[in-house]
Amino acid sequence: MNAIIVDDEKHVRDAIRMLVDWERFGIAKVSEASDGQQAIELIEQERPALIFMDMMMPNMSGSELLEWLSEHSPRSKTIVISGHDDFKLVRHTLKHGGIDYLLKPIDADQLTETVRKAVESWHEDDRKRLETTLRSIEVNRLKPVYWDKLLSNLVVEPSSMAAERESIREEFGGLDQGCPSRLAILSLERIDPGLARKFADNRELLYYSLTNICNEIVRRDNAGYAFRYWNSDKEILIAFWRTVDIEAVEKTVREIEEGIRKALGGKVHFGIGSAQAFPYGLGESYREAKQAIKTSNVMDEDLRIHIGGKQPVRAASARFGDGAEELRLAVRSGNAEQVGRSIGKLLSPLREQKQATIEQLEQWWNEYTVFCSEWLRELSQESQEEEPTIEWTDIARPFELPPLDRSGKLDLTAWESELNRAMLAVSGTLAEKHTKMNNLVHEIGKYIQANYHRDITLQDIANHLYVGREYISRRFKQETGENVSDCIGRIRNEKAKLLLLNPHLRIAQVAEMVGYQDEKYFSKVFKKLTGVTPNEYRKSQSV
């Protein structure tokens, strides 16, 4: 919730700021105006839940402001704080919806109690509005769903017009095959983040609210119809058919944009396709509108209506793949500064050119998907190991939900921070994995050194370390370059060389002491590793 303090005396505004516990009442932003005219401009921008105001102000009196509020901001709760104990002013306040009329100097307890009542009243009204909206959705949901599906189908299958021709003519005032038409897309892909959060738990209510606002405008003169596009979960389509010249359509779309901003407090983006014959040209008009959105500059905070057929934005030439290898090495290094530098370098073309498109972000997303999939394969759990892992949703989030600001502009700073977080998480997991692998190889070596004289097998080692045989075999080979069996043979051979220096030990005894029960097999293995038999080795060392 937002609040606005309107008073021409700064010390009064400061007192109200100090006396109200804003956080307690869930008020996130408090703005100030020094007169009624300035207040109107702020109210139109902020749509505040609470308004604190004086009655005697320059440019516009409190009484005039109250009358304006009752007509233009009826949802706001108004608290008058005045130095005039005048019954007429009190009556005027209550007549135009004021919550209370407090006298200066301000009593802190009285102010707190009044704010509490105002906030509760606002929440109760908001709850009732939501209930009313939901009831309205339930009552009217069947008819809109029918037209949503029928018109969505016409975009991809215009031949279905034949079966529905009479219904369409009747509902839309003579609309028939061959009539000029034009499609616009209201894109939820670049929706105001605040609006997205507001409707996060009720996506259906968002669709309903947006299509309602669109239809209030386009259906006034049967100029068109807005419908949820069932072939995409991020688009509402607006079909125009009475007046389809681009200037008129763009003007109507701007009116819709303003209606959404005033009613819901958020900003959205539109794409507009070319004029085509109904219904066979709907698909082409849709593709043009979609392409206009995809090739629009997501770093331009002012442009929100994108018209198909115009010169597309020349996005920064860099691709994610251009810096992927450097990023990979940085992640493997485990150095946070190096990771940050590589990500900064990756995004620098976008910062310098200040241009990027949704189409480009989708390309980056596809390349990033491949990049992350390689990490996941490396970090995936195997049947008998307790391997440290990182979730796909965690590393993919920077591209699945690139951060946008309230105007739908790509927030590069937030995006860079999110990429840093994801890559450092991968880097930490790799470091943990590498440490564990090193420890595992060390433990395998220790076990072999302690048990080389026994008839040990790969399964014996696996049972001792509670790790799968295949995993031990693969990891040991990766880290040391030799098989476990070769390592056992090498260690036994080194021990046998030492024992052969003792002339009092028979070859059979040496073989048994290093884990071989068969003297001939021991001699064969020894010769294979050293190039000479045990006897030949002993003689060469005694010379």
Automatic annotation (TrEMBL):
Residues 2-119 form the Response regulatory domain. Residues 442-540 form the HTH araC/xylS-type domain. Signal peptide: none annotated. Keywords: DNA-binding, Phosphoprotein, Transcription, Transcription regulation. SMART domains: HTH_ARAC, REC. The modification 4-aspartylphosphate is found at D54. Coiled coil: none annotated. This is Response regulator. It comes from Cohnella soli.
